[in-house]
Amino acid sequence: MFSFEEWLEMIKWFTMGDMTFEEAYRKTGRLFCITVSATTKKAPPVLLNHLSAPNVTLASAIVASAAVPGFVPPVKLQYKMADGSVRESSRDQTYFDGSIDSDIPVNGLAEMLNCQFFVAAQCNPHVVPFFFNSKGGVGRPSRWSSGRHEHSWRGGFLLATLEMYLKNDMKAKFRFLNDMEAAVGFTTSLFTQEFHGSTTLVPQVKLIDFTKVSKANQSASVFGH
Predict the structure, then answer these.
(1) How many other CB atoms are found less than 10 A from the CB of residue 139?
(2) Under a CB-based contact definition with an 8 Å cutoff, are residues 168 and 130 in contact?
(3) pTM for the whole structure
(4) Which of 91, 109, 120 is nearest to 35 (CA)?
């Protein structure tokens, strides 16, 4: 649906041309991480930054992270050589959106950058319905039953447990299909991974909001050290 070449040229305006992860780190002193998923079966997701991929161009990594199947085809990462020229990887490996396998790379960030706490802003439309606090949450206390937070089930005990059962049962079935390699494509991996941080911010969503997904669909994750 979208052209890789056109996206690459547009993004280069924001990345000051073919700037690499290492050049960006030297220029700003800030850590910038992007996760991408390898198209090769069983290959683990890749965490790109100035340590793991210093010569990879930011523009190619950003396009790869936006390569949602059906919209942007998987792409090869581009590297800047010592003479300043930019070339595609000589390997056949291609990458697409990192959220398919690892939307929030907690393990990679903890191991590589010694991150201990993670603040995640979760706005993925397919994930938000699975976030629920059966007894209320911060800023949204449950006022059912006795009125005390630790004993009040949101919507009442029966409705809260029914919601919990249905959502956990659906996730369990996705994990089973994923382990059996019986699912087609990447559908199950989208639902079986963990989307939590140390603190997870989730917007309050209504059913009608899902009819507007095509107008504005954003996903963001913010990581704190």
Answers:
(1) 6
(2) no
(3) 0.73
(4) 109
pLDDT, average across residues 102-116? 86
DSSP string, the chain: ---HHHHHHHHHHHTTTT-BHHHHHHHH-----EEEEESSTTPPPEEESTTT-TTBBHHHHHHHHT--TTTS--B--EEE-TTS-EEE-SSS--EEETHHHHSS-HHHHHHHH-----EEE---TTTGGG---TTEETTEE--STTS-TTTPPTT-HHHHHHHHHHHHHHHHHHHHHHHTT-S-TTHHHHHHS----SEEE-----GGGGGGTTT----------
**Long-range pairs of 28-35 with CB within 8 A, sequence gap ≥ 24:** 31/113, 32/58, 33/105, 33/109, 33/113, 33/223, 34/61, 34/62, 34/64, 34/65, 34/98, 35/65, 35/98, 35/99, 35/102, 35/103, 35/105, 35/108
Provide the token pair at 148.
């005390």
| Surface-to-core class of residue 126, CB atoms within 10 Å of its CB (0-12 exposed, 13-18 middle, 19+ buried) | middle
pLDDT band at 224 (very low <50, low <70, confident <90, very high): very low
